Amino acid sequence: MNRKISILVILIMVFLTGCNSGGTEANLAAIDIPLPYQEGYVQDMKITEDGNLTLAMYETMNGGKKAKATVWQTSDDGENWEQLYEEYFEPNNLNKETVEILMYFAGDGLIITKHDYIGDSLEVTSEEAYYIDEFNNGSRKLFASNSIKDFGGRLIYNNNGIYINIYNEEDGQQIVRLDPDKETLTDTGIVGKDEYEYVYYMSSGGDRIYCICSVAYEGTKEEKEGTVPVDTSKYIKGRIYDTTTGEMSESELLNKAYQVKNQKKFYEKWKGENQYSYTYMPVFCSNISSEEESYLLAHNDGVYMIDSDETKLLYKDKNWKGSSNQISDILMTPDGDIYVHVYLDNYADAQLIKISGGTHS
Predict the structure, then answer these.
(1) DSSP readout, 318-340?
(2) Structure pTM?
């Protein structure tokens, strides 16, 4: 498994939802989507305007001395895959270093971050970031900005721009708009500069960014002593940012989606210092097939739809249970189809499924 991914996963894996209670039983079926090839890891996926599923995949080769980046597209749910892009990356020092990459769709192109390590260690010797605005046309651009080289593991985009989660000691965490041509970063203000303001997950839908984040919260005496569960509603917040107007609002429905059901499983004794016992977290996206606010959320027992009326279990999968499995991404089409990618058995295997229908409301 990619070392960079390992670190980022540990940093953002918190908060299991309380969706299990009061939910409607699952009644939708899914089909397996064959991956383009078994050796590669899916790092990002998207649906094009004409409805084609597109995957960004990477593979390390030659004992970590080379990394392969590819992009694949299918119009028939994996029966046939067309390769759109292929490029290889090597460490700057082939004798002493190994290389790994992270890939993110950015509009019609890609942003790829490259990380060189000393042997098999976690010691990073250099980091680079590239912008590919068109596949396979030799347009790879090296970013000069240090912030772009090592952003916080999540990139989303829409018609109004590319948005990334970055961190630095001076400003803390920020969600910023990236102009890849000018290499400028503009803060959206979704999270503040307090040390306790932290981005756990964000996704996009239409012109909006949906974010789960934390805010500063001291906790009660009983919470600090560990005699009562921490009231997560006090410091976990769901925020919606309109990328057209720049307006931000808090979403009670997102707050509801991410309330922790059973603290004892997922937290060590809480000391009021933001110290967590990390576990795999759900992934979510906006239900773009609905005119009303609602969300799709996938975790280790299935896929839920959450709206103002109910929490509905759309699809259940017993194979996802267990700490060795990780839901990596969920997305949906305007027609209401849902794609979910899952890593199984500590990344030894992977599954990509499509769940059809049942999300319109």
Answers:
(1) GGG-STT-EEEEEEE-TTS-EEE
(2) 0.82
